[in-house]
Amino acid sequence: MGLCHGKPIQKTPETEEEAVVNHVEHPPTIEELPPPKPQTPKQPKFSFYIPSPLPASYKSSPANSSVSSTPLRLFKRPFPPPSPAKHIKALLARRHGSVKPNEASIPEGSEVELGLDKNFGFSKHFFSKYDLGEEVGRGHFGYTCSARAKKGELKGEEVAVKVIPKAKMTTAISIEDVRREVRILSSLSGHKNLVQFHDAYEDEDNVYIIMELCTGGELLDRILSRGGKYSEEDAKAVMVQILSIVSFCHLQGVVHRDLKPENFLFSSKDDNSTLKVIDFGLSDFVKPDERLNDIVGSAYYVAPEVLHRSYGTEADMWSIGVIVYILLCGSRPFWARTESGIFRAVLKAEPSFDEPPWPSLSAEAKDFVRRLLNKDYRKRMTASQALCHPWIREAQEVRIPLDILTYKLMRAYISSSSLRKSALRALAKTLTVNQLFYLREQFGLLGPNKSGFISLLNLKAALMKQATEAMKDSRVLDFVNTVSSLQYRKLDFEEFAASAVSVYQMEGLDTWEQHARSAYEYFEKDGNRPIMIEELASELGLSPSVPVHVVLQDWIRHNDGKLSFLGFVKLLHGISARSIPKA
Ligand SMILES: Nc1ncnc2c1ncn2[C@@H]1O[C@H](COP(=O)(O)OP(=O)(O)OP(=O)(O)O)[C@@H](O)[C@H]1O
Ligand SMILES: [Ca+2]
Ligand SMILES: [Ca+2]
After folding, report:
1. Is 570 annotated as a binding residue?
2. Alpha carbons 557 and 576: distance in angstroms, whole number
């Protein structure tokens, strides 16, 4: 196995870096522990986390002091403490060209390399504009140096330059990744938790991405410097920033796909410094009704649906769940010695909340983590919802961002039958204070008029306030245009709540049965009516090949021909033929 593919890294100021990459690559100390067990003493802690190759001035300085002042063996963990994460091997194989014949259509590296177009159309004069300084960080694809601008708007300012050697771009995919990284970085702008992009250059050897310099070190270093974990209060402060930038990216139709503590940097060394997301090297645009299928990311942080090759922005929320789990307890929720072992754990294992410190953490904290680490992406919180979760919301003043999920659900609602609409209205009557908080925030963002109504035209206006260039690539604007142009009367809050409630998410709650039962009671009083099997079948989009009389007989009450409880729940989902078992 190997992340370094034997290509010498060009223009590397330090030679010891290679050793660091190897250490990341071959942690010598880990043992396979599928079900979480208390750590055994033979496991040396942190020994494979060798200090980052940064010059002393860029290291998060509190790190060293607190690591040495707290003997690491005192930390009881089910798993070893977090170390820099490796990218998924299949991803690297595709990028580096060593692909198994049936795995991808990208041809092998060397012989096609000749035909690869490594011109990016960037300016060629990097060295006339900047003096390159020392290396401040390194990843698998590039290394980052400080630099000082010699002329132009930034004259005299220190910036960061991510240098990506063209020698490492051995496949069309790896070149496309770099193009996309620059396109995404340059099209997203205007959020304080996003590293600010300045410019991109290239020459024969490298691509240079110029951005603001963050001097506070990686979130991973700060976690380790605190003995591996954060207090709840400190974890919330980090979470607010992560959720805020990720909700912004998702609204723009950008999925990061590599969220991990190494990819968040503090802008300065201050304790309360701003956190910035970096490294859009694996990011992609995703249309609101599209699913991506390439397996991308780092093993510890990868969502189950990514491994199943059908995912969207929810995959980032899973990674955030892994990050917050680590922040709160210092261990990874899904861990094994091998990549396939990690994947097995991600797909099958439930994270442990039994080991210390979990029993002493708040119920809200655990609920928050669980709702992100839900294996069913449809039941997972969105970033905007996570900001509304009581664990976050009750601690600090948070600005709740617009959620594209609201738009998707509204579109489905508007094209539903009146029967399904009244079922959803009944469900919305059972919403709790917390759920209503989120919906009220979303409603407020859609600009209700003085009488408390929103029109679909407002959907577009609300989105335009947040629009960046990225929305053109991700087609979010096109999507919202189609929703905005639907013919529909205005919605008051009650109807909005019915239109924007996610049945799947509610189903994920422990209290789902109660919600569904009381919703059914409301529906009985106001909405339930006799329905023909054929009507119900077309309502649910069942194809004529489905033997509807066999499948649907339990969904209609025999005595009065109205919907049974089961039929009501099915109707709420508006399920499609695919999920109906063939009788
Ligand atoms: N703007 C910045 N300011 C300071 N340091 C930075 C900046 N951008 C990146 N770095 C440092 O350089 C490292 C590598 O950058 P980056 O993560 O973008 O590279 P990569 O090769 O894509 O990494 P990966 O292996 O995770 O894919 C970061 O982990 C960080 O330590
Ligand atoms: Ca990185
Ligand atoms: Ca990267």
Report:
1. no
2. 21
- Cβ of 262 below 6 Å from ligand 1: yes
pTM for this prediction? 0.84
- Please report, in angstroms and rounded to a whole number, the separation of the first and last CA atoms in the chain: 47
pLDDT higher than 50, residue 52: no
Q: Are 282 and 297 in contact (CB under 8 A)?
A: yes
DSSP code, position 556: B
Mutation to probe ligand 1, out of 52, 57, 279, 296 (largest number of atoms < 8 A from CB): 279
Q: Among the atoms of ligand 1, which is closest to the Cα of residue 213?
A: 3
Q: To the nearest 5 percent, what fractions of the chain are helix, strand and coil?
A: 45, 10, 45
Domain 217-394 has CATH 1.10.510.10: yes
**Domain 404-573: which CATH number of 1.20.1070.10, 3.40.50.2300, 1.10.238.10, 1.20.1250.20:** 1.10.238.10
Q: Which of 22, 49, 136 to mutate to test the pocket of ligand 1 (most atoms within 8 A of CB)?
A: 136
For the ranges 76-80, 349-353, 426-430, the lowest mean pLDDT is seen at 76-80
Q: How far apart are CA 264 and CA 243, in angstroms?
A: 12
Residue 282: phi and psi, rounded to 5, are -115, 10
Taking 50 as the threshold, does the pLDDT of residue 459 lie above it?
yes
Q: What ipTM did this prediction achieve?
A: 0.99
Task: Give the whole-number percent of the chain exceeding pLDDT 90.
Answer: 65
Please state the domain extents for the chain.
126-212, 217-394, 404-573
Which CATH superfamily groups domain 126-212?
Phosphorylase Kinase; domain 1 (3.30.200.20)
Report the 10 Å Cβ neighbour count for 233.
9
Query: How far apart are the C-alpha atoms of 467 and 410, rounded to whole Å?
Result: 20
More confident residue, 60 or 164: 164
